[in-house]
Amino acid sequence: MSSFKGQIGQDVEKQGIKLPKQWIDFKDKVPTDRTMLVGGVTSAGDSCEPPSSLKKRRQRYVEKDGKCNVHHGNVRETYRYLTDIFTTLVDLKWRFNLLVFTLVYTTTWVFFGLIWWLIAYIRGDLDHADDDEWTPCVNNLNGFVSAFLFSIETETTIGYGYRVITDKCPEGIILLLVQAILGSIVNAFMVGCMFVKISQPKKRAETLMFSHKAVISMRDSKLCLMFRVGDLRNSHIVEASIRAKLIRSKHTKEGEFIPLNQMDINVGFDTGDDRLFLVSPLIISHEFNESSPFWEISQEQLAREEFEIVVILEGMVEATGMTCQARSSYLESEVMWGERFTPVLSLEEGFYEVDYDTFHQTYPTPTPTCSARELAELAKKGEAIPIAPLSPPTTVEERSHPSTEQDKDSSACAGEEVDEGDEETISNGDVSREETKLE
Fold this sequence. Notes:
- This protein is an alpha+beta fold.
- It has three domains: about 1-55, no CATH class; about 90-200, Helix Hairpins (Orthogonal Bundle); about 205-439, G protein-activated inward rectifier potassium channel 1 (Immunoglobulin-like, Sandwich).
- It is about 25% helix and about 20% strand.
- The protein is built from ten helices and 16 strands.
- It has helices at about 80-85, 85-90, 95-125, 145-155, 170-200, 300, 370-380, 395-400, 405-410, 430-439; strands spanning about 30, 35-40, 210, 215-220, 220-230, 235-250, 255-265, 275, 280-285, 310-315, 325-330, 335, 340, 345-350, 350-355, 360-365.
- Helix 2 crosses helix 5 (about 170-200), helix 3 packs across helix 4 (about 145-155) and helix 3 runs antiparallel to helix 5.
- It is elongated.
């Protein structure tokens, strides 16, 4: 099978997927584990040109719902999972957890029922079942089924009273003590496991919201990256805190390649703004300064970058006191330059009302297209910050054939001259925004 290496930059042969040799409809995209491929097969005599621009599907490190796309393979030391069997059972899916729960109890009942039957068989109680003068180890135990039922009654402390152990059987008394102790241990372990699994605060994170997009705009004369968080429940998150990570591959000075390198994004750790009183939705801000990874990124460069911003919200659930964590992420195409979030808080008669219909909505605002570093240099020189005026809303067709004046506005901050034949570069965020408006 021939391998396909194109603008995707990956060998599809290694993915174990057979691809057609020719395609006709490049709009039909077939998702795979790592890329987005196109489907559709032509006939043997037809010829088909490859697509002019085949965009690869970005693989997220963290999904929008907080799921981490990391799978552990070739784990040889599997005994480590058994050393922490309690956590292993809690982490199992519900269907497997219930299966283990049922098997553990059934196994112990059958095991001790077999021992009770062996005691009765060895003592000869089964042969004297109808002898009223014979004193058995357990009254009314005449087979394995009755021994199994007596085992269930003993371990669950039901005690119907029909089958009773006598004082003439010391081995039975010892077995009764052993089963009572082991039964209590099994109950404590399995019931504790089920209680912890039921009370896990994972579902509490479902009511913690993150905005679908992040925005970049001016705040207090500084370029800032902002996103919004909110809590839908009336029971609040206690000691809530927020932090953010920049996930981006990098090359070191020594030539080492570090895939998915993690870098902290300061969202108010120095000033205490990362500790939230999350009663109403809040806008989390990251200022572009010298220590920021976005210090030298402009609007034009943002469209060419490949990174992912992972945001993590942590706190204690007020109702249970357990720690809860909610996660989300933003790709570079989900970062909107020159936008602000629409206010959601309004004052009503006697209370404040939050309108979650506008929680994810943004609106355009005048924002420099150059980087924060260039803005700082202009401020040192005492020059005015050039901000291009907001252009009226345009359609996607108009953006595909932009005018020369729009090209000049896009490079106003850089101070470069634009040729008449240059075309405007549209970022992923602008395209997504226009598609949303059209819908």
